[in-house]
Amino acid sequence: EAQVTQNPRYLITVTGKKLTVTCSQNMNHEYMSWYRQDPGLGLRQIYYSMNVEVTDKGDVPEGYKVSRKEKRNFPLILESPSPNQTSLYFCASSFGRDNYGYTFGSGTRLTVV
Amino acid sequence: GQQVMQIPQYQHVQEGEDFTTYCNSSTTLSNIQWYKQRPGGHPVFLIQLVKSGEVKKQKRLTFQFGEAKKNSSLHITATQTTDVGTYFCAGCVSNFGNEKLTFGTGTRLTIIP
Questions:
Q1: In the prediction, which pLDDT does A97 show?
Q2: I need a surface site. Which of A5, A21, A75, B6 has the fewest CB within 10 A?
Q3: CA separation for the pair A75, A73 (Å, rounded)
């Protein structure tokens, strides 16, 4: 089944404790992206990747890092999480950047206390 | 920067009534995409519109792209309980080969049985 897999689904952590949210897609998509979803703000892009070893900042990159060492994987790293990073996170992938529909993962609900 | 506004933010309708959500961009779009997110779920791609004045239908859903390519609408005829969810538009702006997709804030539809 074609899908984007995110892990974990839920995560509660403490301020400053480094964490990684994994994202993997099995559709051979070149484009991958991370979004955060907050009430009233819609989906805001954090980082995106056009291909292996090519990443760039989205609209809200502060406090986040990403890497794209393999085509299928695009992990999101929070080096020192803070409470304002409490949010619902989605990974998405597509054949291209903006002219193809995105396939989204099931989401990761992160709480930073 | 580019802004994509969606109205209304919330809509409550009786089952069987029609529903419309509107999407407006501050800049001309190269294309627009629509997504549906069920409660507790992830966004799912519905459709993409590219041409000025384009109209596409999916069963009871009708999507329109404005003549000026700055606005779009999604109309649902005779809503059913399965239509519950948040509907997002995502507008793509092409600027000197650099494309950017911006999501609207979404319209949350609830159905009164």
A1: 66
A2: A5
A3: 6
B16: closest CA of chain A, how far (Å): 27
pLDDT at A1 over 90: no
Residue written as token pair 């990747």: A49
A32 and chain B in contact, CB less than 8 A: no
d(CA B105, CA A55): 25
Contact list, B38 vs chain A (CB under 8 Å)? none
E strands in A26-98: 31-38, 42-51, 54-57, 65-66, 76-78, 87-94
Cα–Cα distance, B105 to A82 (Å, whole number): 24
The DSSP output letter for B43 is E
- Interface probe for A, chosen from B7, B38, B42, B89 (most Cβ of A below 10 Å), is B42
Read off the pLDDT of each residue in A66-82 and give the average, rounded to a whole number. Answer: 97
Tally of residues, chain B: 113
What local confidence, expressed as pLDDT, does residue A98 receive? 64
Q: State the distance between the two ends of chain B, measured CA to CA, in whole angstroms.
A: 41
Question: Omega before A39 cis (within 30°)?
Answer: no
The answer on pLDDT for B98 being more than 70 is no
